[in-house]
Amino acid sequence: MMTKDDVALMILEAKRTTGLTWEEIADKIGMSPVFTHSACVGMNAFPPAKADELVKLLALPQEAALVLSESPTKNFAQTVPTDPCIYRFYEIVGVYGPTLKALIQEKFGDGIMSAIDFDMTVTRVPNPKGDRVKVEMSGKYLQYSAW
Amino acid sequence: MMTKDDVALMILEAKRTTGLTWEEIADKIGMSPVFTHSACVGMNAFPPAKADELVKLLALPQEAALVLSESPTKNFAQTVPTDPCIYRFYEIVGVYGPTLKALIQEKFGDGIMSAIDFDMTVTRVPNPKGDRVKVEMSGKYLQYSAW
Amino acid sequence: MMTKDDVALMILEAKRTTGLTWEEIADKIGMSPVFTHSACVGMNAFPPAKADELVKLLALPQEAALVLSESPTKNFAQTVPTDPCIYRFYEIVGVYGPTLKALIQEKFGDGIMSAIDFDMTVTRVPNPKGDRVKVEMSGKYLQYSAW
Amino acid sequence: MMTKDDVALMILEAKRTTGLTWEEIADKIGMSPVFTHSACVGMNAFPPAKADELVKLLALPQEAALVLSESPTKNFAQTVPTDPCIYRFYEIVGVYGPTLKALIQEKFGDGIMSAIDFDMTVTRVPNPKGDRVKVEMSGKYLQYSAW
Amino acid sequence: MMTKDDVALMILEAKRTTGLTWEEIADKIGMSPVFTHSACVGMNAFPPAKADELVKLLALPQEAALVLSESPTKNFAQTVPTDPCIYRFYEIVGVYGPTLKALIQEKFGDGIMSAIDFDMTVTRVPNPKGDRVKVEMSGKYLQYSAW
Amino acid sequence: MMTKDDVALMILEAKRTTGLTWEEIADKIGMSPVFTHSACVGMNAFPPAKADELVKLLALPQEAALVLSESPTKNFAQTVPTDPCIYRFYEIVGVYGPTLKALIQEKFGDGIMSAIDFDMTVTRVPNPKGDRVKVEMSGKYLQYSAW
Amino acid sequence: MMTKDDVALMILEAKRTTGLTWEEIADKIGMSPVFTHSACVGMNAFPPAKADELVKLLALPQEAALVLSESPTKNFAQTVPTDPCIYRFYEIVGVYGPTLKALIQEKFGDGIMSAIDFDMTVTRVPNPKGDRVKVEMSGKYLQYSAW
Amino acid sequence: MMTKDDVALMILEAKRTTGLTWEEIADKIGMSPVFTHSACVGMNAFPPAKADELVKLLALPQEAALVLSESPTKNFAQTVPTDPCIYRFYEIVGVYGPTLKALIQEKFGDGIMSAIDFDMTVTRVPNPKGDRVKVEMSGKYLQYSAW
Amino acid sequence: MMTKDDVALMILEAKRTTGLTWEEIADKIGMSPVFTHSACVGMNAFPPAKADELVKLLALPQEAALVLSESPTKNFAQTVPTDPCIYRFYEIVGVYGPTLKALIQEKFGDGIMSAIDFDMTVTRVPNPKGDRVKVEMSGKYLQYSAW
Amino acid sequence: MMTKDDVALMILEAKRTTGLTWEEIADKIGMSPVFTHSACVGMNAFPPAKADELVKLLALPQEAALVLSESPTKNFAQTVPTDPCIYRFYEIVGVYGPTLKALIQEKFGDGIMSAIDFDMTVTRVPNPKGDRVKVEMSGKYLQYSAW
C-alpha cells in the first residue's frame, strides 16, 4: 500500500531531477511554499484538486494524489530536535514561551493561538548588516471555555 | 544576594498593584513588549539605562537595576511544555521544523536563523471569523562555515 | 504575593471545614462541577463574578478573587500519571487515540477536537451489574488550514 | 506467521479499495465504530463470530479471522503522543486528571473508572457556532479493596 | 492543613517509640499487614472505623483519622525503582510480564487481573536451604468489553 | 545463526497448528507453565533434557534444542509497560513496593527476595462475585552482607 | 524524627573536626572501609553493636545508633551518574557488561553474581608508571531456578 | 563493507561449531578472557597480530582481521541495563559509587580511576556456602589538573 | 535516491581500499581535516567544487558530488554519548559549561560563541609526560539583541 | 556544615561588592581564569595554598579555604543544557563528536583525550568581521589497554 513516506520520496526525486524549487512547485499549484513543503513530506493533507495538480506537475503515479490528500498522522520523532536550524526554533519556544503566553493573554484574554487554524510564511529580508530570516505565524485566537 | 527570581517577583507584585500592562511598561521604558516581559522574568538582560528606568517606574530597590542588567542563565525546566498556550508553539516546531529548514536553505543556502541576533513581536489582528494572533520572528541569517 | 497554590489550599481547608462537596460548591456559584474543581485547584480561570461568589461562599480573603480569575499556567508534572484513577484515562488515550483520530476524520474531515473550546461532565449511571462512570467531553471541531 | 499488523494492513487496503467507512464496516458486522476500528488496527480482539463476518465482508484470507480474535498486546510507542488530534486528549488528561479523580471519588467513593469494562462513542453534534465533537466514555466503577 | 505525609511521619515516630511491628499494628486494628502499612504511608485509605482505631492505638491527634480515611493520590516518584528490594519486583514484571499475560489469557480469556479489587500477603516460608519470601497476589479477573 | 527469537516464532506457529495450550505443553515436558512460557519466548534457559523434549513434542529442528538451553539476555524494551495486563503488575510494584520492602524487613531482617532463586504460579480461583487471578511468587531470602 | 541524612551530616562534621579518615574509622569499629562509608552515608545498615561503637567513637547522640542500624531505602537519584569518578564505573558496566555476563555463564552456568551477598575492597597498588586503583568485588553466584 | 557486527556474528557461529570456550580462545591467542570477549563482540580493538591469530584459529576471512583491529565506537543502547546479570553491576555502581569516590580520594587525592588504562578479570572462587564470583578491576589513577 | 549515508559508506570503503588518511584526503582537496571528515560522514555540506574534487579523488559516482554538497540534517541519536572518546567532551561541557559562559560574558558581554560561523582543529602536541590532544575551537561572538 | 554552594555564594557576593573580574581574581591568586571560576563555583578543588590566597583576597571566613580545597562531586543537573551559550558547546559535541574521535584515533591510535589531565583557555580574538571566541582544550592522550 502506497504510503505518505513513499510519496515524499518520489517527490524529492522528482524535485532533484526537475531542478524545481519548493517555491516554484508551490507557485505552480497555487499554494504557499510552507504548506506545500509540509504536505509533500507528509505533515499536511493537500486538498484533492491540489494533489492532482502536483501529481501532474511532477509526473507521479495517480495513486499518489489519493495518498497526498489523506489525513496524515503527524509523528515527530525527536522530542528535542538536534538539527541546529530546527533547534533554534525549539530554543525560542523554551526561552520566549512564557512571554508569548503573557502577551497573548494581555491582548486577548485567557486563551491560546491555534496551531490548527494556522498559517505561516518564511521571507528573506535584505539587511546591510546581513540579511534576515523573517517567519510570520498567524493563528486564530481560541478562548478557554468556562462552563 | 538578590536574584533575578527575586526581582521578577517584585515586578509582578508592582504590576498587580499599579495595574500597568506589559505593553504600558514597555512603552514607558522605550523597549518592545516581548523583550520587556522576557527581561523582567529573567530570560534577558536589560541595557543598564533601561534597567534604571524600569526600577524608577516600578519603585523597585536600586540593587534590582544591577540584577536586571546581568547576563541571565536561560534555564527552562520542561523539555516538552505542558501549558497549552506554550505547547502549541512547540507543536508548530515539531510539525513545521523540517519545512522551516528546507525553505531557509532554499532562500539563503546552508545555514540557520539566529536565535541570538533575533527579535519578535506579537500582534492582535482583527478578523470577522475571529481575531488572530500574529507572531513575527526575525533573526539574522547565519551561514555555516566551510574551512 | 498570593498564588493559585495558596488559594487552592485555602479552598481545600474551607471545604473540609464546611463539609461542602464540589457539586454543592459548583451549584452555589452556578458553574459546572468539572470547571469549578479545575479552577479551584488552579488549572482554569474563574470569570471575575464567579470568583467573587466563591470567595464569599467560602469566606476567603478578597485578594483570592483576583487570583482565581487570573490566567493560569497549566503545568502538570507527571508525563505519565501514576495514580491509578488518572492513569486509566491516560491508558485510554494510548489505546484508543488512533481510533479517536480516525473517527473524527471520518465524520468531520482533516482536523481535531479542541481542548480549549471544550467542556466535560462526570455522571454516575446506575447499573445492576455495578454502577458506571460516564464521562462526556465536547469540543469544537477545528479544521486544519490549507493555504 | 500472520500477525495483527499484517491483518491491519490488509484491512486498510480493502477499505481503500471498497470505499467503505469505519461506520459502514461497523454497521455491517454489528459492532460499534470505536470498537471496530480499534480491533481492526490490533488494539482489541473481535469475538470470533464478528471476526468471521469481517473477513467475509472484506474478502480477507480465513486465517485473518483467527488473528483478529486473538488477545492483542496493546503497545503504544509514544509516551507523549505528537499527533495534534491525539495530543489534545493527552492534554485533557493532564489538565483535568485530578478533577476527574476528585469527582469520581465524590460520587462513588475511593475507586476508579475501569478502562477494561469500558465503552466509548464519538458523535458529531451540529452547532451554529461550529459543529462539535462529542466523546462519551463509560466504564464500570471499581472500588479499592480494603483487607 | 494536616496531610497524609504528616500523618505517615507521626505513625513512624509512634511505631519507633512503642516498638510495635506492622504486623502487631495490623492485628490490633483487624486489618492485614500489607493494607495497614500501605494506608499508613498514604497509599490507601482506611475505612473510617479502622482509622479511628489506629488513631487511638498510636495516640495520634483525632484529625489524623479524617486524613487516614481520605482517598489518596497514589504518586510514586521513581519510574524505575532503585532500592534493590523493590527493584527485584520491577525486574520480575519486566521479565515475566508477557508470561503472566499469556497465562491469564489462557485461563480466563481476553482480560486482566485487577489491581483495584486486589489483595496481597507476604509470608515467611521456612526452608532448609534458606527461608523463602512468599508473596501472594489476588485480583479479580476483568474481561475486556466488546461493544 | 538460529536465535532465541527464531525459535520463539517456531514455537508460536507450532502451538497455533497443534492447538496445544501452554499448560498442556508444560505438562508434557514436566515443567511449570510459567517457566515453560518464559523459556519458550526466550526469557529463560531450558535444562537440555527439557529442551530436547520440547523440540520433539513440537517437531522443531534439533538445533532449536541447543538454542533453548543457552543462557538468554533478558532485555525488556519498555521501561514502563503499556499493555494493560502487564501495566497493572507494574502499578502494584509502584504502589506496594515500599510495603513489600517494609514487611520483608520486618519478617527477615535487612535483605531482599531473590528474583533468581525464584518461582511463580498463576491460578484461577473461582469466586461467586467473579473469579480471581491468583499469582504466587516465592523467592529465597537474601541477607545483605556486612563486612 | 532523626533520619539517615541527619546522621550522615553529623558524621561528616565529626569527621572534619576529628580529622579521622574513613579507613581509621573503619579500623576502630572493626568493619571494612567500603562498608563503613556506605553505612555512614545511609546506603547500608550497621549491625547494632557496630552502630554503638561508631556513635561512641564520634560522640554522636545515642539515637543515631538506632538510625544507623535501620534498613535503608537505597535511592540513587542519577540514572546516569555525572561525577567523572563515578561515571567511569558506569561506563565500565556499559562497555564490559555483556563480557561479565558471558564469562560468569561460562564459568558457572545460567546465573548472576549477587549484589546482596556481596563485598568489595579498594586498594592502592604502587606502579612505576603511575599507581593504580584496584577494586575487588566478590558476590555469591546465584543460579536461575528452573521449575 | 564488513563491520564489527558482522565479525562478531562469525565468531559466535565459529564458537558454537568448534565448541571452544572464551577462556580457550583467549588462551590460544595469548590474551585475557575479558579482553578477548570484549574485542570479539566489538567493544575493543585487537592488536593486529592477535587479530591475525584469532582469524586463523577460527578460520574467519582475512578481512575480519582488519575489522577486528580497527578502533570501535563503543555504543551501548540501554541507559539502564535490564538483564539481571548486568543490572546487578549497574546497581553496585548506583549504591557504592559515592563510596568508591570517597575512598579513591582518601587514598590518592582528587582524581579518578581510569577506565581506559584499565584491565579486569573474572574468577570463580570455591566457597562451602556457595561459590563466589570475583571481579577484579585495575585502572591507573589519574589526578585532576589544577592550572 | 542516493543519500548522505550511502555516500558516507562509499567513502569509508574507498578510504579502506586506498589507505588514505583523513588528513591526506583533506590536504588533497584543500579543506581542513575536521571539516572534511564531518562533511564525508554527512554532518556538513561541501562546497560544490570540493565535492567534485573528492569524488574524483576517491573515484565515487558523479551523483555523489551532488549529495555531498546538499544541506544535511544534523541528527545525532544519543542525547548522552556512550563512546568514551566522545563522552569526555560531553563531560567537559557539563563540568565547564557555566565557566565557559561566565568567561565569554566577562570578555564580550551578553552573548554566545556561534556554533555555525565556527571552525575547529585537532593537533598532536608532543609532551615528555605523554603527548597531548589539543582541540581549538573558534566561533564568532554573537551579541544578544535588545529591542 | 559549610558547603561548596555556601562558599560559591559568598564568592559571588564578594565579586559583586569588590567589582573584581574572574580574570583579575585568577591573576591575583596565580591560577588560570577557567580553573579559578570552575573551582569557585564548586566544580574543582583549589590547591590548599591557592584556597588560602582566595579567602584572603575576598575576605571570606577561614573555613571556606578548607571547603574550597575539598574534592567536589561534579553533579550537573541538565542532561541537555538549555542556556544557549552552553547549548552551543553541547551541539558541537553532538555534531563533531565522531569527527573528534576519528581524528584522535588517526593521530594517536585507539584511545581518548583525558578530561582529567586537562586544561582549557578562553580568549577573545579580534576580527574585522566580528571578534571571535577561541576555546583551547588540551588533554593527555590515553591509550586503551589491551591485556
Automatic annotation (TrEMBL), chains A, B, C, D, E, F, G, H, I, J:
EC numbers: 4.2.1.104
Enzyme superclass (EC): lyase
Catalysis: reaction(s): cyanate + hydrogencarbonate + 3 H(+) = NH4(+) + 2 CO2
Coiled coil spans: none
InterPro entries in the record: Cyanase (IPR008076), Cyanate_lyase_C (IPR003712), Cyanate_lyase_C_sf (IPR036581), CYNS_N (IPR048564), Lambda_DNA-bd_dom_sf (IPR010982)
SUPFAM superfamilies with a match to the protein in the record: Cyanase C-terminal domain (SSF55234), lambda repressor-like DNA-binding domains (SSF47413)
One of the Pfam families matching this protein, by short name: Cyanate_lyase
Superkingdom assignment: Bacteria
Record-annotated Cyanate lyase C-terminal domain positions: 75-147
Sorted UniProt keywords: Lyase
Active site (record annotation): R88, E91, S114
MF annotations from Gene Ontology: cyanate hydratase activity
Family the entry assigns: Belongs to the cyanase family.
Role according to the record: Catalyzes the reaction of cyanate with bicarbonate to produce ammonia and carbon dioxide.
PANTHER family: CYANATE HYDRATASE
HAMAP family in the record: Cyanate_hydrat (MF_00535)
Protein name: Cyanate hydratase
Organism, scientific name: Rhodobacter flavimaris
Gene: cynS
